[in-house]
């Protein structure tokens, strides 16, 4: 995902909480959405503006935005 805004690694340990994954229960719908979108070929889905621009501030990866849209 180079060329896009990078989020914080969800496996990284921090002061509080230890991991973001610890706050989400195993049967939460967000885990299904995360796995579903990760399995998709976002480029083949013909997302517009998939390639990041060479100038300006980088945008968010389309897969991240799709996860937020589905969950929202």
For the structure shown, list the relevant keywords.
single chain, about 70 residues, mainly alpha
Estimated structural class: mainly alpha
Number of strands: 0
- How many structural domains can be distinguished in the coordinates? 1
- Indicate the mean pLDDT: 80
SS strand fraction: under 5%
Which radius of gyration do the C-alpha atoms yield? 14 Å
Can you count the helices? Answer: 2
Relative helix content: 25-40%
Biggest sheet character? none
Q: Show unreliable segments.
A: none
Shape: flat
Secondary-structure element order, N to C = HH
Through-space gap between termini: 23 Å
Walkthrough of the structure:
The structure is a single chain. The model has no long low-confidence stretch (mean pLDDT 80). Helix 1 (29-39) runs antiparallel to helix 2. With 72 residues, the protein is mainly α. It has one domain (20-71). The protein is flat, with a radius of gyration of 14 Å. 29% of the residues lie in helices and 0% in strands.
